[in-house]
Every structure is written in C-alpha cells, then in structure tokens.
C-alpha cells in the first residue's frame, strides 16, 4: 500500500519541473493509457473471447453445412431439370414440325430458372455467412467491453480503501499548501 501512496504523491512532484502540474503531453500519456487498457482487455477477455469465437465458429460451420445441404438439393434439382431437358429434347424431335420454337423457349426458360435458383441460393448462403460473422464480431466486442469495464471497476474498488483515500487527500493538501507558500 505504501508504494501505491508514494506513487500518488510522486505524481504531483517532479523535481526537474520545480512545481506541481499534470503531464498534458497527449503523445506521452496516451500510449501508457492504451497499453494499460489493452493489457486489461487481454488479461480479462482472452478466455471469454476464445469461448465466444469457438461458439460462433460452430454456428457458422453449421450454417455453412446447412447451406451446402441446400446447395446439394439445388444440384439435385439441376439434375432433375437436365433429365427433364433431355425428355423435352426427345419430345422436340417428335413435334419438331408443330412446335419447335415453343419447345426451345421452354428449354431456355427452364435452364434460366434453374440457374437463377442456384444463384439465389448461393447469394443467400453468402449473405447468411456475412450476417453471422458480423453478428459474432459485435457480440464479442460487446462482451469484451463489458467484462473489461467490470474488471476495471472491481480492481479500482478493491484498491481504494479509506486509509489510502485519506492519505492521498492529506498528501495532496500538503502539496497545495506548499504551492501556496511558494507563490506567497
């Protein structure tokens, strides 16, 4: 506890400056603050983060598997469409004289609709994957922030007790009185 109090007291007294003051150099203080925050985040959030990422990974893999099954169903539909196409082609040979142009139109419509269905399924799969990834990232960010904040508050509350608080206040009052005597 003495070291913590001494560090609070020494924050206001810089022998080279000769007076009390705060370090307002943002370039010197920000790396220290950021390294403390990153250290706390890594220390408190790495287990939760890995669990969340593992869970999200499993969900995404399940989504991919489901999409692959849908793709397999679409491929089966494509094979059925191809079989139907072959059937239509044989019928076209039989009815070539009567309705050749209409059969060709049906063939093209069937192929186009099948490819559109495949494209829609592929787009749905990609959108689902992107949505799930973004949702997982947002959930992980939110959880890490909450846990880091709770950990920091818990650490601050456990470190500050009445004795330390009173000693810090007394030391700061002493520094202010010394500053007042210097300015008078």
TrEMBL record:
The keyword Membrane applies. The keyword Transferase does not apply. Signal peptide: none annotated. CDD domains: ATP-synt_Fo_b. Residues 71-98 form a coiled coil. GO terms for molecular function: proton-transporting ATP synthase activity, rotational mechanism. It is a single-pass membrane protein. The chain crosses the membrane at residues 32-49. It is found in: Membrane; Plastid, Chloroplast thylakoid membrane. InterPro entries: ATP_synth_b/b'su_bac/chlpt. Keywords: ATP synthesis, CF(0), Chloroplast, Coiled coil, Hydrogen ion transport, Ion transport, Membrane, Plastid, Thylakoid, Transmembrane, Transmembrane helix, Transport. It holds the Pfam family ATP-synt_B. GO terms for cellular component: chloroplast thylakoid membrane; proton-transporting ATP synthase complex. In plastids the F-type ATPase is also known as CF(1)CF(0). Component of the F(0) channel, it forms part of the peripheral stalk, linking F(1) to F(0). F(1)F(0) ATP synthase produces ATP from ADP in the presence of a proton or sodium gradient. F-type ATPases consist of two structural domains, F(1) containing the extramembraneous catalytic core and F(0) containing the membrane proton channel, linked together by a central stalk and a peripheral stalk. During catalysis, ATP synthesis in the catalytic domain of F(1) is coupled via a rotary mechanism of the central stalk subunits to proton translocation. F-type ATPases have 2 components, F(1) - the catalytic core - and F(0) - the membrane proton channel. F(1) has five subunits: alpha(3), beta(3), gamma(1), delta(1), epsilon(1). F(0) has four main subunits: a(1), b(1), b'(1) and c(10-14). The alpha and beta chains form an alternating ring which encloses part of the gamma chain. F(1) is attached to F(0) by a central stalk formed by the gamma and epsilon chains, while a peripheral stalk is formed by the delta, b and b' chains. Belongs to the ATPase B chain family. This is ATP synthase subunit b, chloroplastic. It comes from Schnabelia oligophylla.
């Amino acid at each position: 506890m003495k070291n913590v109090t001494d560090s609070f007291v020494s924050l206001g007294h810089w022998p080279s400056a000769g007076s009390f003051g705060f370090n307002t150099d943002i370039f010197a203080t920000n790396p220290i603050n950021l390294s403390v925050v990153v250290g706390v985040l890594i220390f408190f959030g790495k287990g939760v983060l890995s669990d969340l990422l593992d869970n999200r990974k499993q969900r995404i893999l399940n989504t991919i598997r489901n999409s692959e099954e849908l793709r397999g169903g679409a491929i089966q539909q494509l094979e059925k469409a191809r079989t139907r196409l072959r059937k239509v082609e044989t019928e076209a040979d039989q009815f070539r004289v009567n309705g050749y142009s209409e059969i060709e139109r049906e063939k093209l419509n069937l192929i186009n609709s099948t490819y559109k269905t495949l494209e829609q399924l592929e787009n749905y799969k990609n959108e689902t994957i992107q949505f799930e990834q973004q949702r997982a990232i947002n959930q992980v960010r939110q959880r890490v922030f909450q846990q880091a904040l709770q950990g920091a508050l818990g650490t601050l509350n456990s470190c500050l007790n009445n004795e330390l608080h009173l000693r810090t206040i007394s030391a700061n009052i002493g520094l202010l009185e010394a500053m007042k005597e210097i300015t008078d």
